[in-house]
Amino acid sequence: MSKTGHIGGRMGKSMKSFSKLFGLVAFLAAIGLGSPAMAQLSDFEDDPGASTQTDALIDQGTALANRTIQGRTQGAIKTGFYGNFFGGAEAVQNNDGLTVVAGTDGHSGGFFSDFWSDVAVWSNLSSLTIDDTPLDFEADSRIMSGLIGMDKFVTENILVGAVVGLTSGDTDAIASLAGGQVSLRTDTKTHLISVYGAYVLNDFVYFDAAFGVSDEEVSTTGITVATGNLNVQNDTTGSTRFGSVGATVAVPFEEVWLMTGNISYLRSITKLGAIRDNVSNVTIGGQGSDSAILTLGTQVARAFQGGSFVPYAGFAFEKNYQDQVIGLPLGAAGASGLTDQQTNDQSQGIITVGLDFFPADNLSVSMEGQRFVMRDSQKSWGGFFNFRYNF
User: Fold this and answer.
1) Which letter does DSSP use for residue 265 in this model?
2) CB 334 within 8 A of CB 382
3) In a 3-state reduction of DSSP, which class is residue 317?
4) DSSP designation for 307
């Protein structure tokens, strides 16, 4: 029996489990996505005059963490794809030292035998650097994210997992206002927890979903450059909920090549408490942002040394349904004498180059570099290092 036919024969048996387990994660993600289906709310919709740097840091941090979670879900599954596609008709050795031919009823049955009965843990460290240069405004942002996760194939087709992590971001900005330059510093810290899951339809298609919540800590300090006087100092706290759903298709060719294509949708909603400035003694009401991102991506991988060494390259297009306003506060006059000259991109591209390395049957190491393109007045790049171990 072919590998696809073998998995297809098990579809009926796993459908009830799929409905209960993956459906639960998808339902939680749907709660996170909320309504309306496509959000188009502005940054800080309660106070459009507020600076958008805090919002940008939180949204970018959430998107970074969610990309990592989706990527690690893919990492758990594509290990099976690699073993299946690049191993050809050869046997695959599982963690018990038994030999299982892909598509047969060996140790656990099918080409995911390494994962069905074993728990896997992973850790990921990722970073993102952003340089913004709209008119009368310059900002350098750095975002770091550290995540630790655990997942398991609870049935032959269903992966479930959980992850906890910390994301921190900071922005150093120079705002050239009509009255002089102001140096601004914004710091954010996020603690998050998320559940995620995937359903493997067959040898070539799988679906994934994730839902998470996080708490936010934000502080901002501003200094007049000419005098060195403190003119802004405030902090606040808040929370974010986010959810995502996606689908991936894998197509092998020439025995050593694998192309994947995917589509995903992320929705994140952030609410921050009232902000009281300690210098002016002015209180700004609670802020909120609502971000929705649709992503279309593709990736090509080439296997070497029997699939233990797999470099890859890819490109993704992201469409953000929230205005991505970066620059001076809305309505503020800049040194140029102009107002409302912020950049307002809603789309970007992500070029990725990476490597998956499998030094042992139960160990994988991944690293990736990223370059963000197609944005006005902004340069951005990032990357990650990931370690995954199967017990």
Assistant:
1) E
2) no
3) strand
4) G
